[in-house]
Write a structure and sequence with these properties.
By secondary structure, this protein is α+β, with helices and mostly antiparallel strands. The protein contains 3 helices and 8 strands; from the N terminus they run H-E-E-E-H-E-E-H-E-E-E. The protein binds calcium ion.
């Protein structure tokens, strides 16, 4: 019996051999993968703003005068005709007595001074009587806009000559001493100017120097 089963199985096994194709076709599926690499280059351009003009320290106040910037600061200390031209240099070597471009600037200077000393003080400013007006009283030729000239080397125009009523009066000359009132001062409480001579002393000076790229 076992023999018969084996024969039958062997018979079918042979028949199966005949059913298998002699050549098998193998289909290979092939795919192509395209990889695209995109390189993005980001260029970051940092724009550095141009340096701004400023004052050398925060003790100075920046004033924009259009084509240049000016810094002002009050020198506090006894000042008269002997040291009038040197006190500002004690703040900075480039500092000189400051003039005024207009009434706004003398108001600014007054505010700065009052913030430091809240009572009226007189300060030398950057204006001296011009030589042709020495010994001259206030008149049409030597007036508030013509008797004095700015001494700081940068201030121009006459809008900054903001005198108190009746000034510059050349008081000593008018009182008969013969001394001319050469130096201009400002009063911090009134923001008005006055001329004084070598008989007088004040509490300081308004100093100025050009702003720079610090
Ligand atoms: Ca005067």
């Amino acid at each position: 019996m076992i023999f018969c089963v084996c024969v039958i199985l062997a018979f079918f096994a042979r028949v199966g051999d005949f059913c298998i194709p002699t050549q098998q076709v193998v289909t290979t599926s092939s795919s192509t993968t395209t990889t695209t690499t995109t390189t993005t280059t980001t260029t970051t351009t940092t724009t550095t703003p141009p340096p701004e003009l400023s004052c050398i320290t925060t003790d100075w106040t920046l004033i924009n005068r259009g084509s240049y910037s000016w810094c002002i600061r009050v020198y506090w200390g006894y000042a008269n005709y002997l040291n009038v031209d040197s006190v500002c240099a004690t703040l900075h070597a480039d500092a000189v007595r400051s003039g005024f471009l207009n009434a706004s600037e003398i108001a600014t200077a007054s505010s700065i001074a009052l913030a430091e000393r809240n009572y009226n003080q007189r300060l030398f400013v950057g204006a001296d009587r011009i030589s042709s007006c020495y010994y001259q009283p206030l008149n049409a030729v030597c007036s508030g806009t013509t008797a004095f000239g700015w001494t700081d080397g940068v201030t121009s125009g006459t809008d900054g000559f903001v005198w108190a009523v009746g000034q510059p009066d050349n008081l000593l000359y008018n009182s008969g001493t013969g001394f001319s009132q050469i130096w201009a001062t400002m009063s911090t409480m009134t923001a008005l100017m006055d001329d004084i001579g070598d008989d007088d002393a004040v509490q300081g000076a308004l100093c100025g120097m050009k702003a720079d790229y610090y």
